[in-house]
Amino acid sequence: MGPTWLAVGSALWLGILTSISPCPLATNIAAVSYVGRRIGSARAILASGVLYTAGRTIAYVALGAAAVWSLMSMVEVSAFLQGSAHRLLGPLLIVLGLLLLGAVRWSAPGFGVSNRLQQRVDRWGLWGAGLLGIVFALAFCPLSAGLFFGGLVPLAADHGSPLLLPALYGVGTALPVVGFAVLLAAGVGWLDMALAKVQVFELWARRVTAIVIIGVGIYETLRSTLFLI
Amino acid sequence: MKQRIVSPTLLIFTGILATLVALAPGALAQDPPGDEAATTAIPSAGVVAYYFHGNVRCMTCRTIERLANETITADFPDELESGELTWRALNVDESANEHFVKDFNLVTRSLVLVSYRDGKVVRFQNLDKVWQLVRDEEAFSQYVRESTRSFLDEG
Q: B131 and A150: CB-CB below 8 Å?
């Protein structure tokens, strides 16, 4: 039995519900700032948004399929992802923010080697959006675990759809970030008018991104690693 | 131009990070004051509406607990009075309650109805739609009310 339109809509809606809830908000803010940091290039922004979505989707399809096919114990995996895995998220974000700050430091104008290094960092930065999607998807909190393991997985099992429905859920969870990427990419045309300023903007966009990510990392560390807030 | 791979800022941040990670063990986890300590015993008979939480109490988790408790208290006063129905909030991160996670296949903070007879679980129902309905208080209350009513009616 294939999934009905109702099931398809439900899977997408569960994903959207996850994305707009307070719990994943901090990571979505980090993702938005990361995806939007290449403000001079519409293509880079869109590619980052798509790769971030793909990362989330891959993570949920892998987990969803494993759960539907009973390849893992949902109870244990869920406990691990909400516990140990989520506790690593804050420190990981702080490291990521520091790497981005480092990239700013390396991008000294007129420095040949550093420019090549910068290009390499940028290429990895694009794929980094995909990696960020996977990591953020796997850092479950009680709410996303409730909606994924308690809502999406039973839905996928009932409709014999271990791949499509988890994939739609993944797309749903990334929709606010994708929406932001599309809006920003559309605004790049306007930025082109001030082309000379773009490089300066990008430098600051990188710094702001790094600071936002470090801020979210500190918040997540205090909340989920140290349980202080 | 001088290129510095490891900056002082990076070192300071790494130091802070290392300290945070070193301090991370669950010893700092705070168990919020609850009313469950005296009521963890399993009843010999009747239905228990459990709200299972952990050491970390997220905002949405608290809302689910509050709304579920309010619905049960407001809509089942007679059953609560007679002992046919009982409300319990338990912390499954406490070792005495860990077994509930496997007993009822809990994947997150959950609201579970459990029917006991002779001190044994006869059947249970995890109200897993609470996470989908928590943004709509009326729909949430209706779901909890109707699920509890039909669970009680099944005997």
A: yes
Contact A202, A40 (CB under 8 A): yes
Assembly ipTM: 0.71
d(CA A47, CA B135): 33
Q: Are B128 and A146 in contact (CB under 8 A)?
A: yes
Distance separating alpha carbons of residues A184 and A218, to the nearest angstrom: 27
What mean pLDDT is reported for chain B? 80
**Beta strand spans in chain B (E):** 46-53, 85-91, 110-117, 120-126
Contact B131 A141 (CB under 8 A): no
| C-alpha span between A202 and A36 (Å, rounded) | 10
DSSP assignment letter at A4:
P
Residue B1 sits at the chain A interface (C-beta within 8 Å): yes
Relative orientation angle of helices A22-35 and A195-220, to the nearest 10 degrees: 150
A135: tokens are 């990591």
Set of chain A residues whose Cβ sits within 8 Å of the Cβ of B10: 98, 101-102
**Cβ neighbours of A110 (radius 10 Å):** 7
List the single residue in A87, A94, A149 with the smallest CB-CB distance to B108: A149
Q: What is the DSSP string of B77-97?
A: HHHHHHTSEEEEEEETTSGGG
Q: What is the pLDDT of residues A76-106, one digit of tens each?
A: 888 888 877 788 888 888 887 887 777 545 4
CB contact under 8 A, A102 and B30: no
- The pTM (predicted TM-score) of the whole model is 0.77
Instruction: Please identify among residues 41-80 of chain B the ones whose CB lies closer than 8 Å to any CB of chain A.
Output: 54-56, 58-61
The model's pLDDT over A144-182, given as tens digits with 9 standing for 90+, comes to 899 999 899 999 998 989 999 999 999 999 998 888 888
A207-A208-A211 Cα angle (round to 5): 85
Tell me the two tokens of residue A111.
């420095």
Cβ atoms of A130 and A25 within 8 Å: the answer is no
